[in-house]
Amino acid sequence: MIMPIQPDNPFTPQAAKRWIKIPQWAQEKILANVFCGKCLGSVPIILEKAEMRDRDLILMGTCNNCGKKICRVVEPE
Fold first, then answer.
1. In the chain, where are the structural domains located?
2. What are phi and psi for residue 45, nearest 5 degrees?
3. 8: which DSSP letter?
4. Tens-digit pLDDT profile for the chain (77 aa)?
5. Which residue in 5, 22, 49, 50 has the most C-beta neighbors within 10 A?
6. pTM for this prediction
7. What is the C-alpha separation between 32 and 35, in angstroms, rounded?
8. How would you list the strands of the sheet with 56-63, edge to edge?
9. Helix or strand or coil: residue 64?
């Protein structure tokens, strides 16, 4: 398993405000289910960066299984 070093706080200030509004159980589900084009399925993400783009929260990182760069868009509620 590939384990790149994660930053202590990958969230921009705006992304952190959005992330804390999401319940803990939903945060865990989001981080555990990100599509990987190489693995062709849902995988856990190793979070490296999180930022806001317009009203969407973008979670960027690598696949916990193969190490490919992946991301997940979390749309506003």
1. 13-74
2. -100, 140
3. S
4. 444 445 678 999 999 999 999 999 999 999 999 999 999 999 999 999 999 999 999 999 999 999 999 999 999 87
5. 50
6. 0.86
7. 10
8. 45-53, 56-63, 69-74
9. coil
